[in-house]
Structure formats: structure tokens, C-alpha cells
DNA sequence: AACTAAATTGCAGTTATTACAATTAAAGAA
DNA sequence: TTCTTTAATTGTAATAACTGCAATTTAGTT
């Protein structure tokens, strides 16, 4: 609710119109910690907007991003995930099943970049992505391995 | 040279054959700090292997990655970049032109993850990506803006 | 109610990556 | 060296996420 109102305000400030599709996406994103993909957002709205276009979803996400209302997570090759929480936090994804979780990181060691980088780039943001294998996936794997080989402990490299 | 020999050894250990295409990719990657894409690797070898297949490039990159010889950088939506330097360092990319640079980060504040994450995931790695606008691009932008509006200082958000 | 610029829609592209079957070739044995 | 086996490479077709664009609709204003 709060998120939606903020976005409405931001969109108005930017001279963008408030359409039902935009409102619906604001509402879908509001408090959403699931890091949805464009496809998931599209599916989520399809019931209420039977002839919603994918193009519209992409357009709206682009506008929201430009207004600072989401971050686009480039954490897996196949597709982008969208996160309405633009505060400082990191993410971890299971490279087997794609399970994606927030990491609210306490160790606030300020990212101080080397001077030559700061001279060459005007930095706008950063993302920290962790990769791993989740419980469920490593247990499944053990089972499958078990048929032919000796099961190992959960730790294995990417 | 050293990189190639290591990769040859690693491939042998894993029972993989040493083919001319594989050798050529090892050599292309050896000491390569340019973070090439699959397409750039393909083009780089095309002179020596006129009927090299893209599939081969992707297959070989996959094998090298599985052998720990490269990291795949998922830093921009469009394509993956490959980095034969698998030691701890970060990257920054210009969101306008795609210029991609290493950041050798000194501040070694050990990434200590929250316990609930460590309980749920067996972590295999992480990547830190910075986004920004490079000198050349922000200067170009000023020029273009200058035609209609007042030029600003270099700092602008994504 | 009428107007107009902007948003949405429906498709048709684009592009990186993957799947797969047929051909070729590396590596080890004879 | 030649033979054999098995994996690697090739060529091509498929996939899937995203983008471009022209036509239609609509939000916001008068
Ligand atoms: Mn998040
Ligand atoms: Mn690098
Ligand atoms: Zn998993
Ligand atoms: Zn640039």
C-alpha cells in the first residue's frame, strides 16, 4: 500500500500516467519478497487483465526502474528478477533449482573503490550475488548418486 | 602458457580429450583480462578454425568452468562474460557502453553470511558487480545534452 | 464531451544460448 | 602404425527472453 502510493507519487512527478496495469504492478510488487521475473508478473496479472501484453510488463518495469522503485537482479543467465526492495541487501541463488533468497548483511564494511576506478567511472550502484546449492537440491542429489555411488556430505563446488 | 598447461592437466585429470579447439581457447584465455564473451572467443578463433561451431565454444566454456578454469560473469543482461582469473576480485561495467574492468579489492572484510542462510545453502561462490557510467560516456552525454539543455556535472544515477 | 499525448496491445523481430543427430578425431590397445 | 572406441565437433534447428513498431485505446486535461 505504502509502496504503491510512493510509486504513484513518483510516476506523477515524472509526468507518467497512472493506468490500471501500472497500479496492478505496483500492488503486486508491494511487499513482494519473492523476486519475481517478468513472466511471473505477467502471469500474476493475467487473471485481472486477460489481454495484458508482455510488452506492457516490460515497459512498466523499465519505468519503475527508472523511477528508482525496483532493482533488476542479474543473478542468473536466463532471466532478470525484480526486487521492490531497493535498500542495501544481497542475494543468494541455488544454481540447481533457482531458489532465490535475500541476505540482509550486517557487516557494513563500506565499499571503498580504488581511485583509478573512481576516476574512470561514476558509480551508480552495485550488487552482491552468492551462488550455492540449497538443502533440498543437495539431498535430492545424494539420493540420485546413492543408486550408483557412495553418498557424500553436502558440500560441493559449483 | 602456464594457464594452458594447468588446464591441460585439469582436463586430463577429468578424462577430457585435448583437442586443437580446446587448446586454442586455453591459449586465448591465458592472461586475458578482457572478459571476452562467447562471441568474442568464437571470432578470435575463427581465423584458425574456419569451420568452428558456436556450439563447440559453448561446450568448451562449460567444461572449463566445471574444471574451475573460468568464472562466468553475469553482469549484463545480454550476454555472459568469461574470466580466466578466478581469484577474488570484483568488476565494474559501464551501463552505457559495456566497458568492463577489474576491481582488485583490498578491503578483505570476510563475507560472513547469516546462519539461516548457511543452514539452507552450501555456498559455492559469489560475485560483486558495480554499475556506473564511464568517463567517455558521460562526456558524450554532456555534448548531446548541450545542444538543448545546460550541461551538468558528471554524476548521474542509473 | 472532446482533445491529445502517452500507454497498451499484438505481433514480428532479434539474439544469446541450447538440443540433437551426424560426422570426425583423440587416445589407448593391438 | 593401424584399429577401435568413445568423446568432441559440427551444422542446423529450436528455445526463450526480450525489443521494436504500428495500430488502437485511454488517462488526464480543457
Ligand atoms: Mn531482495
Ligand atoms: Mn576479472
Ligand atoms: Zn535448490
Ligand atoms: Zn561507457
Distance between the termini of chain A: 40 Å
Give the oligomeric state of the chains in this entry, treating copies of one chain as homo and distinct chains as hetero. Answer: homodimer
| Sequence stretches where pLDDT stays below 50 over 5 or more residues of chain A | 147-158
- Please tally the helical runs of chain A, counting DSSP H or I stretches of 4 or more residues: 6
- The CATH class of the largest domain in chain A is identified as Mainly Alpha
Beta-strand residue fraction of chain A: 15-25%
- Sheet of most strands of chain A: 3 strands, mixed
Overview of the molecule:
Two copies of one chain form a homodimer. The first copy, chain A, is α+β, with helices and mostly antiparallel strands and 158 residues long. Chain A has two domains: 1-83, Orthogonal Bundle (Arc Repressor Mutant, subunit A), CATH 1.10.10.10; 87-149, Dna Ligase, domain 1 (2-Layer Sandwich). The first copy, chain A, contains six helices and five strands; from the N terminus they run ααααββββαβα. Chain A has helices at 2-13, 20-29, 38-46, 54-66, 115-120, 135-146; strands spanning 71-73, 81-83, 90-94, 100-103, 121-134. In chain A, the strands form two sheets. In chain A, strands 4-3-5 form a three-stranded mixed sheet. A two-stranded antiparallel sheet of chain A has the order 1-2. The longest helix of chain A has 13 residues, at 54-66. Chain A is globular. Chain A starts with a helix and ends in a 12-residue tail after the last helix. Mean pLDDT of chain A is 89; it is low at 147-158. Chain A binds chain B through residues 68, 72, 74-77, 80, 92, 94-95, 101, 103-107, 109, 111-114, 117, 119-135, 138, 154-158, and chain B through 68, 72, 74-77, 80, 92, 94-95, 101, 103-107, 109, 111-114, 117, 119-135, 138, 154-158. The structure holds manganese (II) ion (MN) (2 copies) and zinc ion (2 copies).
Amino acid at each position: 500500500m505504502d509502496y504503491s502510493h510512493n510509486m504513484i507519487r513518483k510516476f506523477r512527478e515524472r509526468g507518467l500516467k497512472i493506468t490500471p496495469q501500472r497500479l496492478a504492478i505496483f500492488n503486486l510488487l508491494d511487499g513482494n519478497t519473492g523476486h519475481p521475473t517478468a513472466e511471473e508478473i505477467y502471469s500474476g496479472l493475467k487473471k485481472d487483465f486477460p489481454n495484458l501484453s508482455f510488452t506492457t510488463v516490460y515497459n512498466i518495469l523499465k519505468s519503475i526502474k527508472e523511477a528508482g522503485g525496483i532493482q533488476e537482479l542479474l543473478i542468473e543467465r536466463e532471466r532478470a528478477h525484480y526486487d521492490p526492495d531497493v535498500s542495501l541487501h544481497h542475494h543468494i541463488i541455488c544454481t540447481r533449482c533457482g531458489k532465490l533468497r535475500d541476505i540482509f548483511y550486517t557487516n557494513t564494511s563500506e565499499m571503498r573503490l580504488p581511485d583509478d576506478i573512481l576516476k574512470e567511472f561514476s558509480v551508480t550502484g552495485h550488487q552482491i550475488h552468492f551462488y550455492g546449492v540449497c538443502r533440498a537440491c543437495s539431498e535430492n542429489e545424494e539420493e540420485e548418486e546413492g543408486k550408483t555411488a557412495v553418498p557424500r556430505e553436502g558440500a560441493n563446488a559449483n
